[in-house]
């Protein structure tokens, strides 16, 4: 039986109260580096789905990224935000190049975009496919709060009384944001419970040191669970301190099911977890908000291979499926998941990051061929 990446066979319902729309406008933001090579893969997959699922896609090419900043002085142009807010139901975002040294007036467009579009939840499934990876079986979903923590980017620098430089950053955790992220994490766990017969939510934190900020995150997550015991009955509730969790995640990945984390920990955990399934090039994510969903592969801009045509498109294709799931198009999303898993299970047509010698387009063509079947 085909299983959804997020929910093991059933999609979580789209959070918006709007009806399911079969005519979708999708913003395409390649960004930098290999983003320009993998976002077209997502577009090709969506175009391939149109006739079979009665979906009509309209695509709008948009700009954002470090190169956009160098060209225009803005990493996230106002026009990009305006179009996304006024015209789009979904967006595919590629990658952003991170300058190795400080650049005045530059700030990450992906962080800004998450705030502008109220994309409060980052959902990152990490799933192995039998035959494609020789490690322990992995099937977890990392639910990352997407709008606060250290990513609010309130920093300051000064010199202490001895003339030595000091840098400080503000870590912000709020009850409002934590309640929202705890609820969607529990909803993901609930869908997995209904399909798989069991589910576990693990709340990760460092409240033994950060008693106020992480302490609040831990307290509110537990409160949401306990206040809705009837709805979430059957979901096991666990807590794990972040450092011991990293250790356990690599030693016992099969132990974890749904993980909910503040922004920074979620970022680190999901990138690290990619090592369990072979490559960042196969790990997708969906940024979910009340009015729009953004699919985003977890890899970076990879300037060392940009332009060579060998970037792995699987993470983008999976992110495209996730975007469709959260927009309510379960069957179309499942078709994509099935085609991708077939490609990975055969373990023949694969890019160099997975030990193969295929090109980006070779992989896309193989997935499209499997979609057609």
Automatic annotation (TrEMBL):
InterPro entries: IsoCit/isopropylmalate_DH_CS (IPR019818), IsoPropMal-DH-like_dom (IPR024084). SMART domains: Iso_dh. One of its GO terms (molecular function) is NAD binding. The keyword Nucleotide-binding does not apply. Keywords: Amino-acid biosynthesis, Lysine biosynthesis, Magnesium, Metal-binding, NAD, Oxidoreductase, Phosphoprotein. The keyword Transmembrane does not apply. Pathway: Amino-acid biosynthesis; L-lysine biosynthesis via AAA pathway; L-alpha-aminoadipate from 2-oxoglutarate: step 4/5. It comes from the Eukaryota. GO terms for biological process: isocitrate metabolic process; lysine biosynthetic process via aminoadipic acid; tricarboxylic acid cycle. One of its GO terms (cellular component) is mitochondrion. PROSITE patterns: IDH_IMDH (PS00470). It catalyses: (2R,3S)-homoisocitrate + NAD(+) = 2-oxoadipate + CO2 + NADH. Belongs to the isocitrate and isopropylmalate dehydrogenases family. PANTHER family: DECARBOXYLATING DEHYDROGENASES-ISOCITRATE, ISOPROPYLMALATE, TARTRATE, HOMOISOCITRATE DEHYDROGENASE, MITOCHONDRIAL. This is homoisocitrate dehydrogenase. The gene is KAFR0J01360.
């Amino acid at each position: 039986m085909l299983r959804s990446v997020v929910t093991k066979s059933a999609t979580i319902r789209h959070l918006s109260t709007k009806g399911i729309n079969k005519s979708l406008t999708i913003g395409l933001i390649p960004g930098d580096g290999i983003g320009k090579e993998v976002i077209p893969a997502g577009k090709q997959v969506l175009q391939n789905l149109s006739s079979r699922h009665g979906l009509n896609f309209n695509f709008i090419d948009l700009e954002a990224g470090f190169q956009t900043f160098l060209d225009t002085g803005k990493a996230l142009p106002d026009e990009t935000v305006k179009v996304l807010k006024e015209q789009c139901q979904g967006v595919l975002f590629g990658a952003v190049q991170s300058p190795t040294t400080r650049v005045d007036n530059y700030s990450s467009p992906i962080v800004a975009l998450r705030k502008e579009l109220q994309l409060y939840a980052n959902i990152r499934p990490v799933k192995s496919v039998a035959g494609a990876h020789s490690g322990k079986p992995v099937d977890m979903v990392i639910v990352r709060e997407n709008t606060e923590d250290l990513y609010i980017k309130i920093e300051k620098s000064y010199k202490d009384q001895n003339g030595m430089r000091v840098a400080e950053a503000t870590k912000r955790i709020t009850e409002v944001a934590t309640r929202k992220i705890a609820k969607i994490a529990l909803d993901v766990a609930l869908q997995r419970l209904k399909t798989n017969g069991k589910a576990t939510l693990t709340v990760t934190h460092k409240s033994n040191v950060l008693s106020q900020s992480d302490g609040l995150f831990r307290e509110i997550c537990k409160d949401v669970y306990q206040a809705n015991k009837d709805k979430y009955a059957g979901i096991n509730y666990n807590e794990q301190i972040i450092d011991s969790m990293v250790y356990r995640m690599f030693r016992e990945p099969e132990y974890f099911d749904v993980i909910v984390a503040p922004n920074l920990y979620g970022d680190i955990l999901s990138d690290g977890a990619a090592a369990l399934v072979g490559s960042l090039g196969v790990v997708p994510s969906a940024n979910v908000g009340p009015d729009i969903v953004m699919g985003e592969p977890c890899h970076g801009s990879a300037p060392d291979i940009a332009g060579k045509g060998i970037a792995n498109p699987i993470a983008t294709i999976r992110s495209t499926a996730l975007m469709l799931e959260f927009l309510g198009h379960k069957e179309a999303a499942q078709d994509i998941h099935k085609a991708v898993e077939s490609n990975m299970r055969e373990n023949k047509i694969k890019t160099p990051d997975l030990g193969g010698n295929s090109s980006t387009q070779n992989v896309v063509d193989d997935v499209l061929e499997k979609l057609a079947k």
